[in-house]
Specification:
The protein is of the alpha/beta class. Helices cover 29% and strands 20% of the residues. The strands form three sheets. It has a seven-stranded parallel sheet with strand order 3-2-1-4-5-6-11, sandwiched between helices. Strands 7-10-12 form a three-stranded mixed sheet. A hairpin with a 4-residue loop joins strand 8 and strand 9. The chain is globular.
């Protein structure tokens, strides 16, 4: 970019991200991301899907079916050419090198911003990433994007997805709705931040709707460039397990007596 202000850019110049590609747009959070971007009215959204995908997407979202399972990336680069932002939202089941392959293709296609499949933990918290075995993947993607020298990364720290973590069994927020059992971590009073899938979609769409750079020296409004190679922090709620349990009991019409309640040390768990 020619300078740090939009007034210095060669014309014609648009100071907004207009074209957004999303890989994996058919899942829960992926669907919310695609729809949130489309609803802004500011983005042309392209869902890049595998040729075998049968995911149904909202009307108005463009679809590019690409086979990127092999070693070549020509088709993927072609699909990404002209895109200004790439959002990667794939599950944990694809091959380990899938994110790397997408990042390399984005660089070849001159995509400016990449969200490299990071939705959850605070990437700036080294101890947390080490404890959750995510340090290696974080460092690897940082290094690859930096070494390629084309794209900037954006990471979303949304903490745990609330609806997923509440309803997905005792290994997460400790609720087992089938057995109607619940585990306190310590005394259940430690608050955490947590976010919903729709909030994640709106947050990323809002960030990518910002002006990319300031208009001039006097422009103090937030810009996308302020988040370049950094983390975006969001949260729907800050609550503890007791708050969650009270909500569950209210919705299910139950009391403590209807649940099997145990307690575990958070450190030991």
């Amino acid at each position: 970019m020619a300078g740090q202000y939009s007034k210095h850019q060669p014309q014609p110049f648009s100071n907004r991200i207009q074209k957004v590609a999303i890989v994996g747009a058919g899942g829960h959070v992926r669907k919310r991301l695609a729809e949130a971007h489309f609803r802004t009215g500011r983005h042309v959204v392209t869902a890049i899907t595998r040729t075998s995908s049968t995911s149904k997407l909202s009307k108005g979202i463009q679809v590019a079916k690409v086979d990127y399972s092999g070693d070549g990336d020509a088709a993927l680069v072609k699909a990404l050419r002209g895109q200004q932002a790439l959002i990667i939202t794939i599950s944990v089941t694809p091959p380990r090198d899938t994110v790397s392959k997408l990042v390399r293709a984005a660089a070849r296609a001159d995509v400016t911003y990449v969200l490299p499949n990071w939705f959850g933990h605070d990437a700036a918290n080294d101890k947390l990433c080490e404890d959750s075995l995510l340090s290696h993947s974080r460092d690897a993607i940082y290094a690859e994007i930096k070494n390629l020298g084309v794209s900037s990364h954006l990471l979303l720290n949304c903490s745990f997805w609330y609806e997923f973590s509440l309803g997905s069994g005792p290994d997460r927020y400790s609720f087992d709705f089938t057995k109607r059992s619940f585990v306190w971590f310590d005394d259940g009073n430690v608050p955490i931040n947590t976010s919903t899938w729709p909030r994640c979609g709106r947050a990323v769409a809002s960030i990518l709707s910002l002006k990319e750079i300031p208009d001039d020296e006097t422009d103090q409004s937030p810009t996308l460039s302020q988040f370049r190679n950094g983390t975006i922090y969001i949260s729907n709620f800050r609550l503890n397990q007791r708050d969650m349990f009270d909500s569950v009991k209210r919705i299910t019409g139950t009391t403590d007596a209807d649940w099997t309640i145990t307690c575990e040390s958070a450190g030991q768990r």
